Amino acid sequence: MALPRLTKRHFTLTSSDNACFLGEVIRSTVGTAALTIHARTDTPIMSDVAAPRLLSTLNNLRGEVSLAVPLHFLEIVAIALPAMPDAAVGKALPYHLAKAVNRPLSDFIYDWQIVERHRDRLQVTVYLFPAARFHTLRNEFARKHLEIKHLEADVFAAFALLGRENRLRPETATLCALIWKNSISLAVYEQGLLTLVRTVSANQPQSPPHRTLSRQSPESAAEPPVTNAPHHPEAGEEDSLLAGFAILSAPGGAVRTSAATADDTPADTSWADYLQHIGLEIMRTRDYYASVVKGGAIKRAVVGGAEAFWQELQRWGRTSLELELEPLTTLPETADCPPMLQALAIGTGTRG
Q1: Distance between alpha carbon 280 and the CA centroid of its chain, in Å?
Q2: Model pTM above 0.70
Q3: What share of the chain is helix, strand, coil (3-state, %, to 5)?
């Protein structure tokens, strides 16, 4: 007698700055995977009470969990290593990484990606997450027979979704901007790699967007201030561009990416200023990628988290960025989970 085949269940844990969601992804060979939200709590996953609250009413959900978090929940370090075989990077990295972080390396779990290969060196980007928080989460989920198998930053999950939906074009670089309540995650994908990743502070205004945006004319909301316009650096100007780009030098040949820029939006910013800030950060990322990273021309940008002010932002993109902004997802707003977090859950939940 043939025994029934047991299907492994795939769960996702996604978090914003003020809530987290436990969902289940039903994978399929064609089309978009289906997502069911099993639990949510109005506390970010970095809080000690988030996981107990999330899991308190759940039973019989055995399976594997993928975790996707906003980029600013992680620390990002770029390190130049001497040229070596890829297999040797894992052994050489701890020595160089220990000199680039301010705490013992044992305080983190981390993963890395080789983003540039040169004749005499490798450029590696390292993503670090607090080890204590991860082990606590893993132990709490294990008590419910849920095994955390995968942890990644939001931009990786977003590009996983775009890849699944065949929306990545191999012939051109793609920029992705994910808009959170107090930050923006930005990344550039080219030839199978996230070759540039950064996070910046950007505080959303407290008032509803359409109440204030409707008072602004499209022309006045679209024009950036000339004094903040990015430019291609001349010889000797790269240091100042790096300072404005939220990249700080660190010991050991490393570059550390901070979570803020010098021109962070104040808490009481207007919506017109906030949209301008988003646009300028997209512009900065595009110009830096072309001028300093020497990457391909960015002709498209995908944006998540802007559903409440999408038309205004898209208009800003056309008039001031000369970019056609595309939505990360067209999933509808639900009471269970915001569209961007649904998209990230599907992206991270369909890996492997």
Answers
A1: 18
A2: yes
A3: 35, 30, 35
Question: Tokens in use for 251?
Answer: 């010991």
Q: How far apart are CA 338 and CA 16, in angstroms?
A: 10
In this predicted structure, the answer to whether residue 146 has a pLDDT above a threshold of 70 is yes
Residues 27 and 8 sit within 8 Å (Cβ to Cβ) = no
The answer to whether residue 32 scores a pLDDT higher than 80 is: no
Q: Measured between alpha carbons, how far is residue 10 from residues 23, 25, 65, 66, 216 in Å?
A: 9, 6, 6, 8, 45
Burial label, 12 (beta-carbon count in 10 A; 0-12, 13-18, 19+): buried
Q: Rounded to whole angstroms, what are the CA distances from 266 to 124, 201, 209, 239, 345?
A: 33, 9, 16, 25, 30
- What are 64-103's pLDDT values in tens digits? 999 999 999 999 999 999 999 999 999 999 999 999 999 9
Flag whether pLDDT at 116 surpasses 80. yes
Which tokens in the block code for residue 114?
A: 């080789």
